[in-house]
Amino acid sequence: MHLLLIHQAFASLDEPGGTRHHELARALVRRGHRVSVIASPVSYLTGAASVTQDGAEPGITILRAHTYRALHRSFVHRVFAFASFMVSAFFLGLGVRDVDLVWGTSPPIFQGWTAWMLARLKRVPFLFEVRDLWPTFAIAVGVLRNPLLIRLSLWLEGFLYRHADRVMVNSPGYVDHVREHGARRVELVPNGADPAMFDPAEDGSAFRRAHGLEGKFIALYAGAHGMSNDLGVVLEAAGLLARSNPDVQIVFLGDGKEKPALQRRAAELGLANVSFLPPVPKKEMAAALAGTDACIAILKPVEAYQTTYPNKVFDYMAAGRPVVLAIDGVIRQVIEAAGGGVFARPGDPAALAGAIRALAAEPRRSRAMGLAGRRYVEAHFSRAASAEKLGAILEEMVK
Question: What are the distances in angstroms from CA 93 to CA 36, 81, 287?
């Protein structure tokens, strides 16, 4: 079976960013399938040229569609980037032969239109994957405000749900939403992690030495530094910890539009207990997480975010590190069922500082939480299990 994936933000294991689709593509190739990916030529996280080119792996073909560069610029510029990819990916996709199924993924939702058109022209099934509830999330945090764009985005969302042969979601919190907005058949293939990528016994000393972090209790945030991530709250928590727990170091690992402002604010506040590090490829993430004592997951206190399963949480758990979770909802249920971390009320710097302080005060308990989280991922959220379920869905759709 030959699968065509339209994914502007596709990232390989050699690049920073979420690698869910690269990992799943590898698993599908092991099942005997071929995967062609149409992606942007630049990293959505760093703006650098994507390092993985076509021919890097047997069974996986990566095609790069022209995309307007809009890294960390205004929403209007990003809409131009989405639109340019939507058009160029369509024409590039027309030339991909012998396709058995087209797989579109959102966000950005505009590439879902490209995937739908290609599927219909090629007369093959269309799988539409929902990775977050766009445009609902964008409206909730104020990124999407223009009334016309809101109406168009909501119309496109409903259109894609109604016209997809199947809609796939990565969180149980999305199921009701997509059904209420027109999806006929919904499949849950949850986010997760590959525990084999991480060694919870690794001491992380090389990472600590490289960044001058020896002797510190390290609480790390890894991922995008964007508006939704509410990292100003983490800075405020760092300010509280600087006075009470100077041995605690807050580390921001990643990139994003808000990073320069966060760095300026940390300098203004004189926060010596805060470090900013550049993003690393997924292959290097295990070493980074091994050098931490706890990991932070945070989103703005918006009700819509209670539906999400952030990828980073499962990586943290797979690495055997306790999660400091400032996100309520379905992901909180996972952490509490696993016993894999502590919850801090979203939007509350004092609560976040208190949660980190509690873990730093009880290193043995923290370690036990981390290992419990890893066992839970192994049992319930392994990438292998997700790939097995996805393979079965795709094979059934192409019968």
Answer: 9, 18, 37
